[in-house]
Specification:
Structural class: mainly alpha
Mean pLDDT: 89
Low-confidence stretches: 293-301, 601-605
Number of helices: 31
Radius of gyration: 38 Å
Strand content: under 5%
Number of strands: 2
Strand order of the largest sheet: 1-2
Distance between the termini: 64 Å
């Protein structure tokens, strides 16, 4: 091994000489480089190498290469020889590593990424080698074909060979089929459209378009995902002048294969919006007899239609779709499309808003519209004169088939916006009696409404609602208890809040957060006397009583309170009480937090 390493280092002597002669590095830095490389050579020469041994060496050499590049710019001198030497060594390291670890795809990708930048002519060959070991992954075939096609368009036959071999192993791969389709389509688009083949009845472009059709037919027999066919249709749109026949063929097959698939109907509708009318394809399909002028002489562009007409055609397809399928998913796609279209107000703004309004109205009548679309409809109605009453009527009808919290919330905020107190209260009574803990957001909204009224009726309603909330046994309603205490503290009196807290503190379900929040209110008292300290201590006492067995932190908080605001003589007894109350497994955590707390206090002091 020693002889091998010495030989490797000897081969690097010219490189070190260049570093010295050009003053790229100082002598001590060069010695460090020699030692680092020697350690790397030792690692990759041992009997049991790992991938990381090679990757560390490669990373070091890449960093060295980057350093040389930066030195070039700074010193204004060309160091091509040094850079080339390092690049060659990196490539050799990759080759050697992959000779031993061919299974590691990550290593292959790193080599390819480096070679694309430093040795692009070798990349195609690297991909070919990689396919021998990782041909079971469709992505690799696609990456190889795309690279070769991008950097060597003249060798399309080799690209097709790669894709055909990939399809032999993965006939149902959407990615490989899509890549093949796009490749032959691009070739057809760049081919001559002059008829000079077979007695001037065919052009080179016609022949290549037949290849496009063949690739499509092959994929049709092997792929069952609608998304694939939609993607190749979108590719055809980029070359719509020559793909009318293929588009018509694809759409006909999809209508036969996926007649009740919402995605198909949405694709057809969105094509109309982009200006690709189905009728145009039918007209083009009729231009097939040999007496027709050559393609280059025919008008094969998309018929120019106004945006208004495009919108009308798009909406017509969606209406046909929801009538044909009658599913919630199709309605959802239709409504989402109308919402998206209406957000662009640059052209045909009034028409788009009208289409959205019509779709929302029809969606409501279908009984399949979702809450988020009802929210949009409510907003539109409430912005119009006398629209609040219509919104109430529609949402009330919607609740018959969707009694979710979100739908109830829409009705509630509509009543609130209309300031219909009696209807707000009536709806709340219904919610209270028929819905469980999930209705908490509705309780909060109702409370906010009555707090904002600032009148005697609002005060009475609040007392009633809070009373029901505080009697609830759902743990989720614990936060409403403290919300009530804060309300009493801020709007009524501190004494009333303390009295209510003493009652709620012993009423299940127990809430640690409520005690902590009350302690914060007590801490906010501006002038403290013995009485206020007593009430403050009560919060910690309740915490210790109900949660002291499993919550070390509350004992630390209690001790901190006694130290800073209470009686220091209580600290020793309280600490002993904590140790005897806590379950044994929580005692170390208590000791640790207590120590940290006192260290923090000392630092602040």
């Amino acid at each position: 091994m020693g002889e091998f390493i010495a030989e490797m280092q000897e081969r690097l002597l010219p490189e070190y000489e260049q570093m010295k002669n050009y003053n790229v590095f100082k002598p001590d830095q060069i010695r460090e480089i020699v030692l680092r490389r020697e350690r790397f050579f030792v690692k990759i020469s041992k009997s049991h190498q790992t991938i990381s041994d090679y990757l560390e060496f490669v990373l070091y050499e890449k960093q060295m290469h980057q350093t040389i590049v930066e030195k070039e710019k700074k010193m204004h001198v060309k160091l091509t020889g040094l850079k080339n030497s390092i690049s060659i060594r990196i490539l050799r390291l990759y080759r050697e590593a992959l000779g031993k670890f061919t299974h590691d795809r990550r290593l292959w990708k790193h080599w390819i990424k480096f070679s694309k930048k430093n040795n692009p002519v070798e990349v195609a060959g690297i991909y070919e080698k990689m396919l021998l070991y990782h041909g079971d992954e469709p992505d690799v075939w696609v990456e190889a074909a795309e690279w070769l096609y991008e950097h060597n368009r003249l060798n399309v036959s080799r690209v097709k060979d790669i894709l055909l071999r990939g399809l032999q192993r993965h006939p149902s791969s959407s990615k490989i089929n899509k890549c093949f389709f796009d490749t032959v389509l691009k070739e057809a688009a760049s081919a001559s459209s002059e008829r000079n083949l077979a007695d001037n009845t065919l052009s080179e472009q016609d022949v290549k378009m037949e290849q496009v059709e063949a690739v499509y037919r092959n994929s049709l027999a092997n792929i069952t995902e609608l998304d694939y066919f939609i993607s190749i249709l979108e590719s055809c749109e980029d070359y719509h002048e020559i793909t009318g026949k293929v588009q018509r063929m694809i759409i006909d097959d999809l209508q036969e294969k996926f007649p009740r698939e919402p995605g198909l109907w949405e694709m057809l509708a969105q094509r109309e919006l982009r200006g690709f009318h189905l009728g145009d394809l039918a007209e083009e399909g009729q231009e097939s007899n040999s007496a027709d002028p050559p393609p280059s002489k025919r008008s094969r562009t998309v018929n120019v239609r106004s945006m208004k007409r495009r919108i009308e055609l798009c909406v017509a397809v969606y209406k046909s779709a929801v009538e044909e399928l009658q599913t919630a998913e199709m309605w959802d796609r239709y409504l989402n499309a109308m919402v998206a279209m209406s957000t662009d107000g640059n052209v045909e703004r009034v028409l788009k808003q009208q289409c959205l309004a019509n779709a929302l109205q029809a969606g409501h009548l279908s009984g399949m519209m979702k809450v988020r679309h009802y929210a949009i409809l409510r907003k539109m109605l409430c912005s119009a004169p006398s629209g609040l009453e219509a919104a109430v009527t529609i949402i009330t009808e919607a609740l018959k088939h969707d009694s979710s919290v979100e739908m109830h919330e829409l009705l509630l905020i509509t009543h609130i916006q209309n300031d219909s107190e009696s209807l707000v209260y009536e709806l709340f009574q219904k919610i209270k009696s028929s819905m469980g803990a999930e209705a908490l957001p509705l309780w909060k909204t109702t409370i906010l409404y009555y707090r904002a009224r600032q009148d005697s009726l609002g005060g009475r309603r609040l007392d009633e609602i809070y009373d029901h909330a505080c009697k609830s046994t759902w743990p989720e309603f614990g936060e409403l208890r403290f919300d009530y205490l804060r309300y009493l503290w801020q709007e009524r009196s501190v004494d009333e809040a303390r009295k209510e807290y003493a009652r709620l503190a012993v009423q299940p379900p127990m809430s640690l957060d409520m005690h902590r929040q009350m302690a914060q209110l007590e801490a906010s008292v501006a002038v403290r006397d013995g009485s206020s300290i007593k009430y403050w201590r009560m919060c910690y006492e309740f915490m210790a009583c109900y949660f002291g067995k499993t919550e070390p932190r509350i004992w630390v908080e209690y001790l901190t309170f006694e130290r800073d605001h209470g009686e220091t003589k209580n600290i020793a007894l309280l600490a002993q009480r904590a140790l005897t109350t806590l379950e044994p497994k929580y005692v170390p955590a208590f000791e640790s937090e207590r120590a940290l707390s006192y260290v923090g206090a000392s630092v602040e002091a």
